[in-house]
Amino acid sequence: MTTLVYLLEDDLDISRLIERSLAQQGMTTRAFRRLAEFERELRRQTPDLCLIDLSLPDGDGLSLINGNALPDTMPRVIVTGRGSVTDKVVGLEIGADDYITKPFEPRELVARLRAVLRRSRRTRATAGESTREIAMFGDWTADLTACTLIHTDGRKVTLSSSENSLLEAFLRAPGRVLSRSNLLDATQGRSNEPFDRSMDARICRLRRKIEKSPKDAELIRTVYGAGYIFTADVDWR
To answer: What is the domain range of residue 154?
Structure first.
């Protein structure tokens, strides 16, 4: 099956470069220059992945990623000229699965998109199996096949594919210190870019969903100079 990618990019030269690079890998790209037409097409058909620029003629890509227009489990990757660490951390914290800055090497772009797609497809494939992966920890029950968390008070929280993979990595190794490198390997998110703050941002997103107080984390604790440790006991069902 052909991979369908939606590209929201108002620079025609960059748009053509991306379309050409993905076409060489057998992917189909539909390019949009404006947020309004992108959202209109999204309601008609859901792609396998979205590539989103941040600076748009009729809106801000961050608002799109942070809003409700994109399905929770659909991978979304930011491709932008904003290259500061702050912009990257914000983009990843609000839900992007990866953050790629311009100018970029087309081969690296393709490799990183493939990594994001592998994570997403693995999650969907697991969800389609009859055996469900259920883990209980603290006040939460995690259904990894459905990418959902249920709190003892009845609240239901949806996880993105990247958040689901990250939580699973912790649940598989409770009480063990995991370095950023360990977590990148476990979530298949390693890239050639020396940006370990990206993992910090993903953990921040996950903490906001499972911790009572993200600023005083109890479940995912930082081990300074070493990585992170998941402190709760885990009961698999």
So the answer is: 130-236
